[in-house]
Design brief:
Elements: H1 2-26, E1 29-30, E2 33-37, H2 53-59, E3 76-77, E4 82-86, H3 91-103, E5 107-108, E6 113-122, E7 132-140, E8 144-146, E9 159-161, E10 170-172, H4 175-185, H5 194-200, E11 214-221, H6 229-241, E12 247-251, H7 254-265, E13 270-279, H8 288-292, H9 303-323, H10 325-328
Parallel strand pairs: 1-5, 2-4, 2-6, 6-13, 7-11, 11-12
Antiparallel strand pairs: 3-4, 7-10, 7-13, 8-9
Helix pairs in contact: 3-7, 4-9
InterPro entries: Nucleoside_phosphorylase_sf, Pur_nuclsid_perm
Pfam family, one: NUP
Signal peptide: 1-26
Length: 338
């Protein structure tokens, strides 16, 4: 009888131990920083780099892909809690992917910071090829009413916002976090190219002719690839109409992704990081159609350098947050006194 009792106790102990082990194995990954790119050109490494490749090569070459139901591409995580994925281009594509990832029980995003990153366009009066920009505001280019210019008074705007979208057409990103990002990325040696330098000379604007630098301003989200001075002016008008900073970046995803994150975790830990690979309009000697469909050899240079610049700038912030996690875990710390 004693042997039976001892055997029973041993079996129960083994069962409890197994359950504890399975529970430990099932614990979700605590995400410290999530890097969201929108597209990759080919493989994650070893070929022409798109938006994800430099991030992947820095953080996840030794990480196994994790398939998430409903997401476009796998999620990768390293042992430091830095995770990332390619979400897809456009509002619907990217927001559906981030929703699936945030709801995956294998991850805990409750304390995560988000870097929404990719390439973009810029008005030549506000930026240049190779610039890297931290978004201060995210504005949805749509969610309103538009009409043909000939149907209104000459020179007047052809857009008015639609009522009912006030809470998700405009997001101010955490100013303290933006200032941290600017501070940490100051002094990064940004890449440039001879092709980009030559292309800039087609534009008379001082900013368009400048060397690449780290900037801040409003990122305008729209599925439409709007081009030309008229629509660029309209984007600036919308930014000012909403009380945001100057429009400096045109992109396709950030406002939509931010809305998804906001509904679960708020916006205090979101960063929008974009690199300018094109101008949002042609130079004075070409039409908008010529700018959209350039002749062979007439495209803007600097794409390869810009995607590298994005990672060089963003990694400064990611690495700092992870290295000083006790200070960042519960929220964005105050900036140190100057």
């Amino acid at each position: 009888m004693q042997r039976v009792t001892i055997g029973l106790k041993a079996g129960l102990f083994a069962l409890v131990s197994l359950c504890a082990t399975n529970t430990a194995l099932a614990a979700p990954t605590k995400v410290k920083v999530f890097v969201a790119s929108m597209f990759e050109i080919g493989a994650n490494t070893g070929d022409r780099a798109g938006e994800f490749q430099y991030w992947y090569e820095r953080y996840w070459q030794k990480s196994a892909p994790h398939e998430v139901r409903g997401a476009l591409k796998p999620v990768y995580c390293n042992d430091d809690g830095v995770c990332g994925s390619v979400l897809g281009m456009g509002k619907v594509n990217s927001s559906s992917s981030i929703q699936a990832i945030l709801l995956d029980p294998d991850y805990d995003f409750s304390e995560a910071y988000f870097v929404l990153t990719g390439v973009a366009g810029t008005p030549p009066s506000r930026g240049t090829i190779g610039d890297v920009s931290w978004g201060t505001w995210l504005v949805d280019y749509d969610l309103g009413h538009r009409w043909a210019p000939e149907e209104g008074k000459p020179g007047e705007p052809v857009f008015i916002p639609r009522k009912g979208y006030e809470s998700y057409r405009l997001f101010q990103l955490n100013p303290v976090l933006v200032n941290w990002a600017v501070k940490l990325s100051a002094g990064v040696n940004l890449k440039d190219s001879e092709a980009a330098q030559k292309y800039r000379q087609r534009y008379p604007d001082a900013r368009a002719n400048a060397a690449p630098s780290v900037q801040t301003g409003t990122h305008m989200t729209g599925d439409t690839f709007f081009h030309g001075p008229g629509l660029s002016k309209e984007a600036q008008y919308i930014a000012k109409l909403y009380g945001a900073d100057d429009y400096v970046i045109t992109e396709m995803e950030a406002a939509a992704i931010t809305l998804v994150i906001k509904r679960q975790f708020g916006t205090d830990r979101i960063m929008s990081l974009r690199g300018a690979v094109n101008f949002d309009q042609g130079n004075p000697n070409e039409t908008t159609q010529q700018h959209l469909d350039p002749a062979p050899g007439q495209t803007a240079g600097g794409f390869a350098e810009t995607v590298e610049n994005i990672e060089l700038v963003g990694a400064r912030v990611v690495d700092h947050i992870v290295a000083d996690w006790p200070q960042w875990q519960k929220g964005v710390p105050a900036l140190p006194a100057k």
